[in-house]
Write a structure and sequence with these properties.
The complex is a heterodimer. In chain A, strands 2, 4, 5, 6, 9, 10 and 11 form a 7-stranded mixed beta sheet that branches. By secondary structure, chain A is an all-beta fold. In chain A, 0% of the residues lie in helices and 54% in strands. Chain A is globular. In chain B, a hairpin with a 5-residue loop joins strand 8 and strand 9. By secondary structure, chain B is an all-beta fold. Classes of the chains: A mainly beta, B mainly beta. At the A-B interface, strand 4, strand 5, strand 9 and strand 10 of A face strand 3, strand 4, strand 8 and strand 9 of B.
Amino acid sequence: NAGVTQTPKFRILKIGQSMTLQCAQDMNHNYMYWYRQDPGMGLKLIYYSVGAGITDKGEVPNGYNVSRSTTEDFPLRLELAAPSQTSVYFCASMGSGELFFGEGSRLTVL
Amino acid sequence: DAKTTQPNSMESNEEEPVHLPCNHSTISGTDYIHWYRQLPSQGPEYVIHGLTSNVNNRMASLAIAEDRKSSTLILHRATLRDAAVYYCILRALSNFGNEKLTFGTGTRLTIIP
């Protein structure tokens, strides 16, 4: 099992550009989550999904969109990137009450 | 949403036990208490979780107060590799029964050689 795989690991965006952070899991978990972590801070929940076709907002959803067309994939879309979205993004899936995290995607918006 | 409160930082000597406290005074009866830790430059990793009874695993022990308003993560013999940020979170059910997991700022544990 690969677990939770995130791509890309690093990305630099210009203000106003858009991009998609990819997240895939091979554990057949229904629950998936996107978090962001600013330097020296804790994790903030952006969006989460309880299964294919079902998503819900977390604590900081503004500026982001998600979709969940399959159990395996949970992409995070950034529209009109802003410097405030510079952060490390973590995707996670949950099985048997345990969260499994990806290695993170470091995004810089200049 | 039920919230947790943890000290910002703690220090402990190597090879001594460490007790990391967490307050969750607004916990509801169906909320599980979870602990995760985040090593430098890594994603968080699961440590332990429980509902009412104390729990033990190979990494740590979780002591839950009788009224469930607080809990303590116990590392029995700290090593340098245990230096990390430890998060106490509640696995809460939203109004729609969805499992929404939010993290606080955690406790940064420093191990002194």
